[in-house]
Design brief:
single chain; about 280 residues; alpha/beta; seven-stranded mixed β-sheet; five-stranded mixed β-sheet; 6 helices; about 25% strand
Length: about 280
C-alpha cells in the first residue's frame, strides 16, 4: 500500500553505502557468526528474524527495537516499511548494529515516479541490491505506482538471494527466474496482512509451492494492521519451518544452506514448450 508521495524528493544513489571502505571480508568485531562459518567453509547456518511490524510506529523506532537482538543475523521487515527519503538513516542504523536488513521501501528517488522497491542492506550499511516490484495490484496501478522492468538475483555475503515483493509471490515466473539464476533463498516482504482466512491459506500454499518447485528457502512476513498478520518460512522440500499469525513480534528460525535436499531437477524442464506463457 502506498503512502503520501507528496514529500520532498531526496535522491539516494543506487548502491548507497554509509562507508564504502567497509568490505565484508574485513568486518571488525562483532563479526556475524554466519559470515565466519561461511569463510571457514563450515556449516552455513543463518539465523533469520522476521519482524511482523506495526505500521503506525515510526520505522526507525521499530528497527531500533529489533536490530540489537543478537539472536538473528538477518532481519526481514514487511513491504514499504520506510520511505526512500529515510534510506540513509536506515543504512546508518543497520551499520551500527552490524546486521543484514531485507525489506521494501516506497521509492521516490526517480523524479515524478513511485516504485515499491525491495532492498538488501549489508552489515556495513551498504545498499548492495534492490528490486523494483514488477507485478502490481489494481490499487497500486490506480495510485500511480510504477512497475519494475527486471528480475535479477542479488549476490550477497549470505549467498545468492531473490526478492519477491508482496504480490509477486503469486506469480511462479518470478521465483523461477531467481532460481535459474542460482538463488537459494527467496524473501517475500508483504504489505498489509491477510484480509480473510482463505487468503492466509492461499498465500502460504503459494509460498510453499515456490519453495518446492524451485528448491529454495522461502521467508515472508507482513505488517500488523487491521488484518491477519502472518510470518512463515519453508524449506526447499516444502517443510514448514515456522508459521505465526496475529502477533506483533520477532519470529526466529535457523537454516543451514549446506544441508542437502532432494528437489526437482531443472534439467528435466522443456522450456521450448513454454513460449506461450510469455505471449
Amino acid at each position: 500500500m502506498a503512502r503520501d508521495a507528496s514529500r520532498h524528493h531526496h535522491p539516494s544513489p543506487r548502491g548507497a553505502c554509509i562507508d564504502d571502505k567497509y568490505p565484508l571480508s574485513s568486518m571488525q568485531a562483532p563479526l556475524l557468526s554466519t559470515l565466519i562459518t561461511m569463510q571457514k567453509g563450515e556449516s552455513m547456518r543463518i539465523k533469520v528474524g522476521m519482524v511482523v511490524a506495526k505500521r503506525e510506529r515510526p520505522a526507525l523506532s521499530e528497527l531500533e527495537k529489533y536490530l540489537p537482538n543478537d539472536w538473528a543475523d538477518v532481519f526481514l521487515f514487511p513491504e514499504t516499511y520506510f520511505l526512500s527519503e529515510q534510506l540513509s538513516d536506515v543504512c546508518a542504523l543497520v551499520k551500527r548494529h552490524r546486521k543484514w536488513l531485507i525489506t521494501s521501501m516506497e521509492d521516490h528517488r526517480e523524479p515524478g515516479k513511485i516504485y515499491q522497491t525491495g532492498v538488501v542492506i549489508d552489515p556495513g550499511g551498504c545498499l548492495i541490491g534492490e528490486h523494483r516490484k514488477t507485478v502490481l495490484t489494481d490499487w497500486e496501478k490506480e495510485h500511480s505506482i510504477q512497475p519494475g522492468d527486471s528480475i535479477q538475483m542479488i549476490e550477497t555475503g549470505l549467498g545468492p538471494i531473490g526478492l519477491a515483493v508482496c504480490y509477486e509471490i503469486w506469480f511462479p515466473e518470478v521465483a523461477r527466474l531467481y532460481a535459474l539464476q542460482g538463488a537459494k533463498i527467496l524473501f517475500n516482504p508483504i504489505g498489509t496482512g491477510m484480509y480473510y482466512e482463505r487468503q492466509v491459506e492461499q498465500w502460504t500454499t503459494l509460498a510453499r509451492a515456490r519453495a518446492i518447485e524451485n528448491g529454495m528457502f522461502v521467508f515472508g512476513c507482513s505488517h500488523d494492521v487491521d488484518t491477519i498478520p502472518i510470518a512463515f518460512a519453508y524449506s526447499p522440500t516444502g517443510e514448514c519451518l515456522v508459521f505465526s499469525r496475529e502477533v506483533n513480534r520477532l519470529i526466529r528460525v535457523v537454516i543451514d544452506l549446506e544441508q542437502t535436499y532432494e528437489t526437482m531437477s531443472f534439467t528435466d524442464r522443456t522450456p521450448h514448450l513454454y513460449q506461450q506463457i510469455c505471449a
